[in-house]
Amino acid sequence: MTQALSTLFSRTWIWSFIAAASVFLVTIVFTGGASTVGLAQAALTFGAFSVLVGLGQMLVITLGPGNIDLSVPANMTLAATVSLKVMNVENSMILTGLVVAIGVGVAIGIGNYALIKLLRIPPIIATLSMSFIVQSTAIWTNRGLRIKPPSWLADFTTSSTAGIPNVALVALVLSVIVWYVINRTVYGRSIAAIGQSIRAARMAGIPIDGTRLITYLLCAVLASLCGYLLASFSGGAALNMGTEYLLMSIAVVVIGGTAVAGGNSNVPGIWGASLFMFLVVSMLNTYGFGAGIRLILTGLIIIAVIMLPTTRSAGKT
Question: At what angle do helices 72-87 and 244-255 cross, to 10 degrees?
């Protein structure tokens, strides 16, 4: 029993769930238990959107230092705007809108890696530059309009199945797929190898460029899908709808236990971190704190998580 507990607590992802459970209990105690079910469903719903963008960002970060996608917020906005315009509130166009949203993600993913590979621009600069282009395109496409999603899609994203929000179920299915890809496929082993040592991976014959291209594509597609679902859930696309997900997509990856230096990813931890971040925001709102305090706290949490392994290593020497 002791060994099992020791093994469990040695897994980095378990701590994000412990943190989420702790904040959940504190919030429930403070509210007298009146909002237990509602808070749990809200955490699963809004946490699911963070999971979707976090999965993609996790794949990119696993490639190693310097790899990060800063175009996620603009990607979400453009995919949501274009897909809603294509669907034009018609239920018969839901699948077409989904295909369009995925197509936007594919185009942005290719554009990101084209800047990185062909122009040899660092990923941070390349994806930041792409975000300006994409956001400008979204502004031009949106033109101040807020198109509503088709009624069937709106009902799906705001409803639950067996008490679990549908968007959380979608995120769960995609999480299982990503976990399988990372742990059971050649591609998953390839991104881990590249993250650990790109030179060794090249000597081992791993297709570096192809693997990195696929990774940036997957990140962009997951962000586009998140934008598609978020716009349907919130009743339309807004030009600032993806803003908070830039920091969030990085925070849930780091807090969830994925190695910042690359070479190691953690899917379960993203769920724990996403729930934790939402519950922290809810608790701060309950106590009357504003967005500024939330951002400061998020930054401090990320710094603490990054410094913790360093502190442990120093203590062992």
Answer: 120
Overall size of the chain counted in residues: 317
Residue 23 exposed, middle or buried by CB count within 10 Å (0-12, 13-18, 19+): buried
Instruction: Kindly list the averaged pLDDT for each block of 10 residues, start to end, along the chain of length 317.
Output: 54 76 80 73 92 95 92 94 93 95 96 92 92 90 79 94 94 96 94 92 92 96 96 89 88 86 88 89 72 73 62 41
Helix (H) or strand (E) holding 281: helix 267-286
Q: What is residue 149's DSSP assignment?
A: P
Spatial CA neighbour of 66 closest among 245, 270, 216, 271: 216
Q: Pick the closest to residue 225 from 116, 41, 85, 79 (CA basis).
A: 79
User: 43 and 275 in contact (C-beta within 8 Å)?
Assistant: yes
- Give the torsion sign (CA, 144, 217, 128, 65): positive
